[in-house]
Amino acid sequence: MPANSSPRKFHFISGLPRAGTTLLAAILNQNPRFRAGMTSPLADIMGVVMAEASSKNDFSFDVSDEQRVALLRGLVENFYSVEAGPAVVFDTSRLWCSRMRLLDTLFPGVKVIACVRQLAWVLDSMERLVQKQPVSVSKVFRFDTNTTVYSRVEALTDPRGMVGFAYQATKEAFYGSYAQNHLLMLTYESLVRDPAAAMRAVYQFLGEPWYEHDFDRIDYNADEFDARVGMPGLHAVRPKVELVERQPILPREIFGRFANEAFWMDPKNNVNQVPIV
Questions:
Q1: CA–CA distance, 113 with 27 (Å, rounded to integer)
Q2: Which residue, of 16, 72, 127, 274, is most buried by count of CB atoms within 10 Å of its CB?
Q3: Are the C-beta atoms of residues 12 and 103 closer than 8 Å to each other?
């Protein structure tokens, strides 16, 4: 099937953890034309297929690039084919920002929304979740019971860590040649302060007709997944979209260390004219 003949549109959500990806999905889900959710396994499945269709497999010499494209595009289309209703599907993964060129190859004109937040507050939010569970340990830290706030921050911000990888992938997408016309940076701060204005910008970026959302009655639940990774509340969404002021719980020197890492805030960095909401 040609890349542009799919009857269903696919958009992708990526960016930083604790930066509003689940909240964005919950809001989008209010639109009956849309289907969105928390992080799906699709990007990981795609990675396995790409590896097995590469020279890792001795028989891959018989697989053409055209077949690889058809196979990977079919993964996305077939993954959601069992749901007949939604006309527009949003798949979420922190991996998508590192695969902008691949997504554009599979779905020319693809749109990716990268949710971002001040890095110090991302780490502070993660630490707050940890401290809410004093008698449990998390898969995020490989179930290690001998950690401190300092070692947890180092683990999270490692290039292969939950936050470090997402941060570097988002930077790659922002500075990469496929950012222009394909990427939107949606800041957590804008989304919770003025959700109506933020979502109108999202709809404009996607080229979708506006739907009147109810920002006082948001419904989303991923308790089972959060319990499995040992971090209850990881994907919790408050019923009402609003800014909640609070004091950081990270040690002052850690918070200060990451306080100026919002590269998207400096206009000089935006060489690809990426819309920033």
A1: 14
A2: 16
A3: yes
| Residue reference for tokens 């929304």 | 113
Rounded to whole angstroms, the Cα distance separating 186 from 115 reads: 5
Structure tokens at 76: 């996305």
Task: Return d(Cα 113, Cα 69) in angstroms, integer.
Answer: 22
Confidence grade of residue 8 (pLDDT, cut at 50, 70, 90) = confident
Helices (H), 62-148: 65-79, 100-106, 119-131
CA neighbor of 27 nearest in space, from 230, 238, 229, 247: 238
CB-CB contact of 200 with 33 (8 Å): no
Neighbours of 127 (CB within 10 A): 20
| pLDDT surpassing 80 at residue 109 | yes
For 181-193, give the DSSP string. TTEEEEEHHHHHH
CA 23 from chain centre, in angstroms, equals 11
Question: pTM of this prediction?
Answer: 0.88
